[in-house]
Amino acid sequence: MPARRRTLLKVIILGDSGVGKTSLMNQYVHKKFSNQYKATIGADFLTKEVQFEDRIFTLQIWDTARQERFQSLGVAFYRGADCCVLVYDVNNMKSFDNLNNWRDQFLIQAIPSDPDNFPFVVLVTKLIKKSRAWCASKGNIPYFETSAKEVFNVEDWRGRRDRSTGCEC
């Protein structure tokens, strides 16, 4: 039996403070949810191994603080990222409006080799028409409904049909 290939993938989670980034990350990695909100200071990361076909991927998932005093850390944390997850709270439309800023700042600081084709994913708690239009305008970025509290679509958003494009992701 051939040895399985292992690949490290760096995933950055971005979004306004309080939108649920840490909750989603903890639910995905540890299968735990807490009602206690504790702001991330600087940055934190968790790892999770996932298998896809004959490969094992170690996801290094980075959760970064939104607070202005930590923004200078972005360059160090964003560089070398393989994917960026943008999160907003459907009940906080300002967090949706800030998706452009998060995406733009990521591209400026991460300096990916092909910024037009860098993989972004948007995670939201409910289907909303505005998110569909925004994702379409940014090159059909896939997005998924999620809820860390309800354990909905946290673990298995891969392979789901994206409602905005109809593609299998």
From TrEMBL:
Cell compartment(s), UniProt: Endomembrane system
Cellular component terms (Gene Ontology): endomembrane system; vacuolar membrane
GO process terms (BP): protein transport
Keyword terms: GTP-binding, Lipoprotein, Nucleotide-binding, Prenylation, Protein transport, Transport
Xref: SMART domains: RAB, RAS, RHO
Main location: membrane
Topology relative to the membrane: Lipid-anchor
Nucleotide-binding among keywords: yes
GO MF terms held by the record: GTP binding; GTPase activity
Similarity comment text for this entry: Belongs to the small GTPase superfamily. Rab family.
PANTHER family: RAB FAMILY, RAS-RELATED PROTEIN RABG3F
Annotated protein name in UniProt: Uncharacterized protein
Organism field: Spirodela intermedia (Intermediate duckweed)
Lineage of producing organism: Eukaryota, Viridiplantae, Streptophyta, Embryophyta, Tracheophyta
